[in-house]
């Protein structure tokens, strides 16, 4: 059915007779050195809500991307415990003991990747993510490393290579958030965000640029706060905006290697990073601001990452993909 639908779309586009409306929704851790990284091998026709003329090239591009989007949707509807056969590829996800990082590690494992899970202090949680993956038939290991320490980041990548070989996908997800107005922001909180979010991501992306195999993917986690620009989020938003610049420029620097580099900018996601310190009423108020009247889930973000990592996601390069349910 999907094949026939895509064929019909393409045929209509070629004839110039197709009308459709596509929305603007995009496709889709302190300062002390960490001891030598420790490796533990305990291992989701186009919907039409209105009509406007679409140019032939735009429609053909939508038809070309549809298989990846349909595949991502179908996969996310499967049981989280169902693993695909190994695809012979390796993924490393920083900050993946919980939240978006853990969901991404699980999803990539389901897609056949051998996955290195990373944590700073949540060793039990990281081991739990690995156990889930292994119990479902996947391959995973976990490594403790603080991304704000460049030597620890190097050891993280070396540990991944000892466990599984060269890396194909790197997701720079580790990050922290400290909120305060400019007047009230402390030096310690500001410096810590810079150390983890700004410097830490740079260290991860630098190693990725040196080590990711040709044809691979590199993804840096930004945030839709770069567009929302809410009070008290200033320094945090600045560290996240840097991810978008990192991705765009690194994508150009890796020319000729078929490595696609992108930033992903989630919106309001149901993780402790967002919900901690907020009342139920405040969280409900934020959810009500989204067109879908709900918070995003970590799996929503992981599904988009999986689509970018797929064979059909390679042409998306140097971009910022806003995965926020339409809040901005």
How would you characterize the overall build of this protein?
The protein is α/β, with parallel strands linked by helices and 328 residues long. It has a single domain, classed as 3-Layer(aba) Sandwich (Rossmann fold). It contains eleven helices and ten strands. The protein has an eight-stranded mixed beta sheet with strand order 2-6-5-4-7-8-9-10, with helices on both faces. Strand 5 (114-119), helix 4 and strand 6 form a beta-alpha-beta unit. Helix 2 crosses helix 11 (298-309) and helix 3 (99-110) crosses helix 11 (298-309). The protein is globular, with a radius of gyration of 20 Å. The model is unreliable at 1-10, 12-66 and 72-81 (pLDDT under 50).
Q: Which whole number gives the mean pLDDT?
A: 83
Percent range for β-strand residues: 5-15%
CATH architecture annotation name: 3-Layer(aba) Sandwich
Strand elements, count = 10
Radius of gyration: 20 Å
By DSSP (H or I, 4+ residues per run), the number of helices equals 11
CATH superfamily: NAD(P)-binding Rossmann-like Domain
CATH topology: Rossmann fold
- Described by the principal axes of the CA atoms, the overall outline is globular
Count the domains: 1
Classify the secondary structure makeup into a structural class. Answer: alpha/beta
Order of strands, widest sheet? 2-6-5-4-7-8-9-10
Contiguous uncertain segments of 5+ residues? 1-10, 12-66, 72-81
Distance between the termini: 34 Å
| Share of residues in helices | 40-55%
**What's the order of the H and E elements?**
HEEEHEHEHEHEHEHHEHHHE
Can you tell me the CATH class? Alpha Beta
What profile does the largest beta sheet have?
Answer: 8 strands, mixed
């Amino acid at each position: 059915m999907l094949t026939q639908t895509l064929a019909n779309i393409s045929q209509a586009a070629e004839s110039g007779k197709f009308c459709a409306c596509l929305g603007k929704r995009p496709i889709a851790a302190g300062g002390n050195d960490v001891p030598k990284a420790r490796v533990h091998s305990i291992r989701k026709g186009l919907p039409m809500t209105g009509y406007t003329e679409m140019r032939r090239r735009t429609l053909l591009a939508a038809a070309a991307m549809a298989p990846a989007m349909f595949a991502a949707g179908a996969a996310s509807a499967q049981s989280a415990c169902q693993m695909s056969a190994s695809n012979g590829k390796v993924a490393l996800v920083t900050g993946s003991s919980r939240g978006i990082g853990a969901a991404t590690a699980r999803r990539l494992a389901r897609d056949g990747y051998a996955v290195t899970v990373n944590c700073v202090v949540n060793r039990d949680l990281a081991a739990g993510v690995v156990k889930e993956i292994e119990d479902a038939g996947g391959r995973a290991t976990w490594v403790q490393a603080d991304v704000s320490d460049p030597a620890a980041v190097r050891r993280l990548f070396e540990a991944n290579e000892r466990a599984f070989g060269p890396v194909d996908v790197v997701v720079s997800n580790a990050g922290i958030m400290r909120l305060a107005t400019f007047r009230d922001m402390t030096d310690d909180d500001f410096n810590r965000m810079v150390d983890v979010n700004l410097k830490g991501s740079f260290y991860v992306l630098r190693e990725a640029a040196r080590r990711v195999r040709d044809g691979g993917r590199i993804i840096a986690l930004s945030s839709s706060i770069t567009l929302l620009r809410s009070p008290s989020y200033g320094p945090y938003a600045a560290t996240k905006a840097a991810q978008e610049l990192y991705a765009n420029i690194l994508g150009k620097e890796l020319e000729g290697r078929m490595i696609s580099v992108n930033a992903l900018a989630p919106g309001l996601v149901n993780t402790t990073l967002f919900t901690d310190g907020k009342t139920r009423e405040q969280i409900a108020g934020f959810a009500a601001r989204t067109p879908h009247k709900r918070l995003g889930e970590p799996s929503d973000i992981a599904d988009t990452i999986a689509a970018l990592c797929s064979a059909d996601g390679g042409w998306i390069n140097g971009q910022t993909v806003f995965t926020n349910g339409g809040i901005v």
